[in-house]
Amino acid sequence: MPTIKIPSPLRYYTNSLAEVQVRGETVTEAMDDFIAQYPALRQHLFNGKGELRPFVNLYLDKEDIRHLHGLDTPLKEGDRLMIVPSIAGGTGEVDHSALRTNQAFIIGLNLVAFILDATWLAALVAFLMAVGTALKIPAFGFIYRRGLKPLGWIKPDLRKDNPEPHRFAQGFGAVVLVGGVLALSAGATALGWALVWLVIALAALNLFAGFCAGCAVYYWLNRLDVPGFVKAPPEGTFPGMRPK
Amino acid sequence: MTTLEIPGIILSQIHAYGERAYPEEGAGLLLGKVNEGNKRVVSILSLPNAREDIARHNRYLFSPQEYLLGESEAERLGLELIGVFHSHPDHPNRPSEFDRQWAWPSFSYLITSVQTRRAVESRAWRLAEDRSQFEEEQILVRD
Hints:
The structure holds two protein chains of two kinds.
Chain A: E1 3-5, H1 8-11, E2 19-21, H2 27-37, H3 42-45, E3 56-60, E4 63-64, E5 80-85, E6 87-89, E7 93-95, H4 96-115, H5 119-135, H6 141-148, E8 158-160, H7 163-185, H8 189-209, H9 213-223
Parallel strand pairs in A: 1-5
Antiparallel strand pairs in A: 1-2, 3-4, 3-5, 7-8
Helix pairs in contact in A: 4-5, 4-6, 4-8, 5-7, 7-8, 7-9
Chain B: E1 3-7, H1 8-21, E2 27-35, E3 38-46, E4 60-62, H2 64-76, E5 80-89, H3 97-101, E6 108-115, E7 118-127, E8 134-142
């Protein structure tokens, strides 16, 4: 008979047994028999549709059954099927005060760049936005984290949200701004400032109206199943809008 | 209410770990003994946060391999894995919805709120049997 190896958090249900013998010629049959012996475990291992929960991994010897034939993987006499937890958690929230501080600085510095006709300043903002995107933080978030928040001038605004679309939006803004700086450097003044103003306008739309155009593009790419765009909008939120 | 007994020195280590990890989440495993649902922490194991950098700021994840490391370390010490500790940077020490969805039954979840690099307070939680919510556990700090 195959054996199922039980991880610590489930031994509470198996009378502290670390291994349980089961009947079955496939992983499904073995798990069915296991659940029949310990019915209280069903809800913790399977969702309502009878699929394995995402944090439950089954290993046959050292191989994840997802890389074999999934639940249909055949079992032989003496096989050891190991239940291995993925342990995860966290807040799943994003501090929108950090994002808004970032938008305010992007708008303000680009406006100053336009007024002073200072291409270098727009280039500096583009550079910082690119670095922020690479470091996966808002470019000017440090001003909020190190200054405005500790001083109590701006309170945290924690919302259920995904950080990825905001990073994408910042990266998108950086690319547009780099385009603007290149155009300005090449003497295409009108095009250059138009691109800078596009970045200002999109950051302002986000800051004042709570709509993140870059995030909307991210979620749209997610709907098209484009690889790398894994997050869907928070429940009940229009794609790109600031979550409630 | 079940209890989670923890030596003061280990709780301080967990707080220091959360402070070092700030603004990311710092997490690890609790090793110890269980007696009729009440747990006693004897040792901790902090593990690298395996989640791709992209989500580290508000998520943590231990891969199956890291979990198995914890399991064998517990076995070596004659202990059991009894739970998980993690920090919530600039967030309260209540479990999030994501914490609940991913929670393992019978485990203690010790959550430390770290506000601007300072560990403020820890609370312990355990998933209700029907997975609908967390129930708080009483933390008993021992010398």
